Amino acid sequence: MADHTVRPIALVTGASSGIGRGFASRLAHDGQDLVLVARRRDALDALAAELRAANGVGVEVLAADLATDAGVAAVEQRLASGDIELLVNNAGFGTSGEFAELPLERELRQIDLNVRALVRLSHAALTPMYARRRGAVINVASTGGFQPVPYMATYAGTKAFVLHFSEALHEEAARHGVTVTCLCPGPVKTGFQDAAALDVSRMPSLGWTSVDEVVGQALSAARRRRAIAIPGALNRATAASVGFIPRFLTRRIAGSMFRDAAARRQAPRG
Ligand SMILES: NC(=O)c1ccc[n+]([C@@H]2O[C@H](COP(=O)([O-])OP(=O)(O)OC[C@H]3O[C@@H](n4cnc5c(N)ncnc54)[C@H](OP(=O)(O)O)[C@@H]3O)[C@@H](O)[C@H]2O)c1
């Protein structure tokens, strides 16, 4: 029998800016209680106060560095309490440039955050969701996960992992009444470009989507129990084209776009 004393909650990682902040705002607007996770406690506290005042929802703040064992363990512990109805594994960052020239430590931190934390938090969330036979996980990958991306090699590799991992979990979870949806955004103007030291000023504006569009399509896909959400018609077409364009060509096209954007580098954040 369902425990009606427990109010379901959504936990969003990377909620202090960009797409994660967009998820938090949309969910709060829909009346959902929240746990907000990121490193910057001040930004989370300010957002929590804003969302409580505007929507009358309960908002917890859990400041944690998900590239560290202790940070992930704190969020795993919160998920284990069994009241999380929706987990949005959104925290992530990218790096750009020639792999051999990039500091190895930051490449490994990217894998720790984009892959290792996401796997651990998916595991921690799914166990109680399976027991209740309800719940949803949205894992944020990227259109960069559909093909190799020279000059963003590690980032695209992490997102290919997230895509394949999430699709596999989608099939397993469906048997337990739980949905796993992989969100694959194309370019969205957020803190991501600065953190990745990408200059996208000369990139065509066609594939760009807004945070609102990305969040709306992800939540709608999860409600409809879809495995993958790719916001934007051009992004959907590009992802589909990978299936019939020769592989060497897709990686060369991606490489020519990102070599230029990575070459006009600014100082990376975080
Ligand atoms: N924007 C795009 O074009 C785009 C496209 C495809 C996919 N994505 C994906 O979308 C997701 C969200 O990115 P965004 O575009 O919203 O970028 P963003 O504005 O830079 O947001 C990244 C979020 O992740 C958090 N974060 C970073 N490192 C963290 C860590 N070690 N521990 C905990 N939280 C951490 C940041 O908060 P703190 O700094 O406070 O920790 C921030 O809230 C990422 O997974 C990204 O790969 C973005």
Descriptive notes:
It is a single chain. With 270 residues, the chain is α/β, with parallel strands linked by helices. The protein has a single domain (9-263), classed as NAD(P)-binding Rossmann-like Domain (Rossmann fold, 3-Layer(aba) Sandwich), CATH 3.40.50. It is built from nine helices and seven strands, in the order βαβαβαβαβαβααβαα. The protein has helices at residues 18-29, 41-55, 69-80, 104-132, 153-174, 192-195, 211-223, 233-241, 247-263, and strands at residues 9-13, 33-38, 59-63, 84-89, 136-140, 179-183, 228-229. It has a seven-stranded parallel sheet with strand order 3-2-1-4-5-6-7, sandwiched between helices. Strand 4, helix 4 (104-132) and strand 5 (136-140) form a beta-alpha-beta unit. Helix 1 (18-29) packs parallel to helix 2, helix 3 runs parallel beside helix 4 (104-132) and helix 4 (104-132) packs parallel to helix 5 (153-174). NADP nicotinamide-adenine-dinucleotide phosphate (NAP) binds at residues 14-20, 38-40, 43, 65-67, 90-94, 113, 140, 142, 185, 187-188, 190-192, 195, 270. NADP nicotinamide-adenine-dinucleotide phosphate binds at residues 14-20, 38-40, 43, 65-67, 90-94, 113, 140, 142, 185, 187-188, 190-192, 195, 270.
